[in-house]
Design a protein that fits this description.
The protein is of the alpha+beta class and about 80 residues long. The chain has one domain. Helix content is about 30%, strand content about 25%. The chain is built from 2 helices and 5 strands; from the N terminus they run E-E-E-E-H-E-H. The strands form 2 sheets. The protein has a 3-stranded antiparallel β-sheet, covered by helices on one side. A two-stranded antiparallel ribbon has the order 4-5. It is globular. The two termini are about 20 Å apart.
Length: about 80
């Protein structure tokens, strides 16, 4: 698996989190974010269960441009462009 780095939260005080990548082989968007707190997790569980193999993460709104870039990149890869 080869990851294409998209960006790190520009307001991160340590430059480590949150982060966005695109898997160059599968075009999956890979996100590192803050773990959901109990309140957020409870709200998410109102719409259904969360399997043990999945988790809820929060990514700040200031990273929307990075998420768009990752989604655009993933879409191009899926289309073979």
């Amino acid at each position: 698996m080869a990851l294409r780095f998209i960006g790190i939260d520009p307001d991160s005080d340590t430059g480590q989190c949150p982060t966005v990548w695109v898997d160059e082989d599968t075009a999956d968007v890979v996100i590192q974010g803050w773990k959901a707190d109990e309140v957020l997790l409870a709200q998410c569980l109102e719409t259904g269960s969360i399997p043990e193999t999945e988790g809820v993460v929060r990514v700040p709104a200031r990273m929307v441009a990075m998420l768009r870039e990752a989604c655009d990149d993933a879409e191009r890869r899926r289309a073979g462009l």
